[in-house]
Amino acid sequence: MLKYILVLQVIIACSSLLQGQETLHLGKDQSWQPVPADERGRFLIEVAKAKQLVTSGKEKEATEALAKLKQDFPAIAGPDVNAFIAADLLYAKGKFTKAIPLFENFLNEYPTSPLYDAGIERIFQMGTALLAGYRVPLLKIFRVKGFEEGVKTMEKLADRTGDAPIAQQALIAVAHHYEKRKKFREAYDTWADIASRWPTGELGKTALLSMARDLHSGYKGPRYDASGLASAKGYFQTYKLRYPESAAELKIDDVIKEIEEQLSYKQYNIGKYYQRTGSKTASNIYYTSVEETWPGTVGAKMAQQSSKTK
């Protein structure tokens, strides 16, 4: 969304100049405001062009446009432009771990700068690259993939931008990053954060389903803790209740049955362990629990058979 706003801003500004009409720019309150037909107005138009270059990822052109701002508008291009350029030069050189703090300082010190949104976009671009495996220096000798730095960058960006679309994009990128690396618990935590911020609409729906899937995917087998399975089942059941048509298309009932089979087999294995160690009372408790809680499952049938052969 931010990209489209910037493009629209440039188009309106330029076309209005050509037609002799009133020129508008997007103010910090996200409302369109007239651009004065003076040096300040021309400066805002050139800033909009530079921001679009930033958004498009054209590092060289953006750096040149920003340097030209200082040259053409020395009385207006103040310390905020200097601060942005200093950070952007590091970005252009690929020194992300140095550029990110400078951009964050820029945002903190110059929240009303016309380049503020461009600074947000730059941080998002670097966070995306880091999550994708962009390498960063380690001990000035090695270069390692900057996954952790990318996660921190995106989470801080989301906290800074609140309910803005770019905050959603940043956290979704983090969640997908964790899923790609099969870090399902961390992915679940991120989707849970998203669900708490945007509990309704399409994003809330996606977050709920993703939380269920990640907890399910994170189950490693009967030798491991199964608490995530029970939670996954609960989330799938909630999804089915809220979105029955989608649940039918996704065959959520089949997934719930699969989880019940996994849960029953997990409990059966605990009973089997107690049976092997001679703890008949404990094994009976687990076998009975499996039969009563998940009747008809393979685990329940195995529990029934084991209880007969003791």
What do these coordinates show?
The protein has 310 residues and is mainly alpha-helical. Among the domains are: 185-250, no CATH class; 260-310. It is 73% helix and 5% strand. It has 15 helices and 4 strands. It has a two-stranded antiparallel ribbon with strand order 1-2. Strands 3-4 form a two-stranded antiparallel sheet. Strand 1 (24-26) and strand 2 form a beta hairpin. Helix 2 (39-55) runs parallel beside helix 6, helix 9 runs antiparallel to helix 10 (201-217) and helix 10 packs antiparallel against helix 11. The chain is elongated, with a radius of gyration of 28 Å. The N and C termini lie far apart (66 Å). The relative contact order is 0.05.
SSE arrangement:
Layout: H1 2-19, E1 24-26, E2 32-34, H2 39-55, H3 59-72, H4 79-92, H5 96-109, H6 116-131, E3 135-138, E4 142-145, H7 147-161, H8 165-180, H9 184-197, H10 201-217, H11 227-242, H12 244-249, H13 252-276, H14 280-293, H15 298-308
Antiparallel strand pairs: 1-2, 3-4
**Helical content (DSSP H or I, runs of 4+):** over 70%
Unreliable residue stretches? 1-33
Strand order of the largest sheet: 1-2
Taking the sheet with the most strands, its summary is: 2 strands, antiparallel
Counting DSSP H or I runs of 4 or more residues, the number of helices is: 15
User: Distance between termini?
Assistant: 66 Å
| Category from helices, strands and their pairing | mainly alpha
From the alpha-carbon coordinates, what is the Rg to the nearest angstrom? 28 Å
Shape: elongated
Order of H and E elements: HEEHHHHHEEHHHHHHHHH
Number of strands: 4
User: In what range is the share of β-strand residues?
Assistant: under 5%
**Overall pLDDT, averaged?**
84
